[in-house]
Amino acid sequence: MAESEGLNRGVVVNIDKTVDAVKRAISEAEHAAGIETQSVVVGIAGDHIQSFQSRGVITVAGGEIDKGDVTRLLEDTKHVAMPADREILHVLPQEFIVDGQDGVADPIGMSGVRLEANVHIITGLVSAAKNVYRCIEKAGYAVDDIVLEPLASSHAVLHDDEKEVGVVLVDIGGGTTDIAIFEDKTIRHTAVVAVAGNKVTDDLRKGLGILHDQAERLKREFGVALVDMVEEDREIQIPGIGGRPDKSIGQSTLAQIIQPRLEEILEFVAIEIKRSGYGRHLSAGVVLTGGGALIPGTADLAAEILGLEARVGRPLGLAGGLVEEVDDPKYATGVGLVLHGLRTGAGRGASLVAPETEAVEAEPVREPVEAVGDGYDSDPDGLVNKIASRMRSWFDEL
Q1: Under a CB-based contact definition with an 8 Å cutoff, are residues 226 and 301 in contact?
Q2: What is the Cα–Cα distance from 23 to 40, expressed in whole angstroms?
Q3: Mind giving me the DSSP string for 187-207?
Q4: In this structure, are residues 90 and 377 in contact, taking their beta carbons and an 8 Å threshold?
Q5: CB 3.0-4.6 Å disulfide test: which of 32, 182, 262, 336 passes with 152?
Q6: How far is the C-alpha of 304 from the C-alpha of 226, rounded, in Å?
Q7: Which tens digit of pLDDT belongs to each residue from 218-239?
Q8: What does the pLDDT look like over 177-204, one tens digit per residue?
Q9: Which secondary structure element, helix H or strand E, spans residue 39, and what is its range?
Q10: Which of helix, strand or coil describes residue 23?
Q11: How far is CA 321 from each of CA 34, 313, 348, rounded to the nearest angstrom?
Q12: CA-CA distance, 313 to 294, in Å (whole number)?
């Protein structure tokens, strides 16, 4: 862990401070794990993230659909008009259609002459992705993959059966609140809202006239999401500023500041659920994760505002190592990025699976990622000219 002073609402605003934070965090991780790191899987967020649906169609020459046909089809779906300052980050297949037969999850090996696909395309600002890449490079590491953070978090905290029946993942981080909606084991909608835990801290800082560090400590130790949850209005001592005497406030006062901001965040989530069109398909309700989900009562408030069952999600399915240390919602994205790296063979697994492998001088080459199954397809090709050429050597584009 390292304080991310160089980021604001998920976007890099200070290169040097971000580089220092990356170096501190990775150094601590290397020391704890006893391995040397050459490359990283990076999460990206920010309110510049946008997503939309697209469709592609190709003709199958040999009569039997193979992996090359699927790759060609997904390439076809990317031919959409976009502003010059935006670039595709992910192409996520929703379903394939073979000779008019829809609902096909994996068309490889099937017979057909016409192959279509509905896909979910996620785009981001070229400059934002470029700055993330530049920070990692300046810190001395290679980038294996750039992954949208709610997709990474979903790996860590969602059960497969939740993804099947319909669920909305809400990751309330420090700078951004990330939203991902799943149904039929496929991601259906993604969004990033630039209001999250840091806004709650700012509200406390301004409302009580205290320092940022003091506000953060009060939020973590005494904060609750619902005023009604405060049974005994205990007095909390606040240090005076500039030699002034200490003052005390009631816990209910904290709740009166925290609840409206969390309600605002959840209202944004409700808007995105409505926009997705899957509001009636979310039988598994909402899973809250991220540091913001640690405020007691957040799940109850979410259930009340969204009208869905709510639970707090912690990283699942881990064994050995520092499992107890990362069994916390605030580590959902970090754990998810590691799981993504393992699943896709990022850096050929050299940095994650076989730590004894010596550092490779040449830039790592990504193994081809299955276009179907996991629903992942990273496509950072074209993040402006400088990084485009280098990234092409890391990614087998889909």
Answers
A1: yes
A2: 12
A3: EEEEEEES-SHHHHHHHHHHH
A4: yes
A5: 336
A6: 11
A7: 999 999 999 998 888 888 888 8
A8: 999 999 998 999 999 999 999 999 999 9
A9: strand 39-44
A10: helix
A11: 11, 20, 21
A12: 10
Q: What is the mean pLDDT of residues 337-351?
A: 72
| CA–CA distance, 89 with 143 (Å, rounded to integer) | 14
CA max distance for the chain: 82
Interatomic CA distance for residues 344 and 53, integer angstroms:
24
- Does residue 272 register a pLDDT over 90? yes
CB 154 within 8 A of CB 180: yes
CA nearest neighbour of 198 among 368, 9, 387, 6:
9
**Helix, strand, coil percent content, the chain, rounded in steps of 5:** 40, 25, 35
Residue 115 makes CB contacts below 8 A (sequence gap 6+) with 57, 58, 59, 60, 65, 69, 70, 73, 96, 97, 98, 107
| Cα distance between residue 285 and residue 167, in whole Å | 5
Instruction: Find, among 190, 184, 67, 70, the residue nearest to 120 by Cα.
Output: 190
Spell out the domain ranges in the chain.
Answer: 159-315
Which residue type, as a one-letter code, is found at position 82?
A: M
pTM for the whole structure: 0.82
3-state secondary structure (DSSP) of residue 108: coil
Contact 342, 352 (CB under 8 A): yes
Cross-strand bridge partners of residue 193: 177
Classify residue 329 as left (phi > 0), alpha (psi -120 to 50) or beta: alpha
The whole-number pLDDT of residue 396 equals 44
The dihedral sign for the CA sequence 301, 306, 311, 314: negative
288 and 265 Cβ atoms separated by less than 8 Å: no
| Sheet with strand 167-172: strands edge to edge | 186-193, 177-183, 167-172, 286-289, 310-312
**CATH class of the domain at 159-315:** alpha beta
Residue-by-residue DSSP string for 347-394: GGGTTTT-TTSPPPSSPP-PPPPPSSSS---B--TTSHHHHHHHHHHH
Tell which residue, 306, 281, 302, 305, has the closest CA to residue 293.
302
Looking up tokens 């991902």 gives 180
Q: Are 158 and 180 in contact (CB under 8 A)?
A: no
| Tens digit of each residue's pLDDT (9 = 90 or more) over 117-128 | 999 999 999 999
Tens digits of residue pLDDT in 299-325:
999 999 999 999 999 998 777 777 888
pLDDT at 386 over 50: no
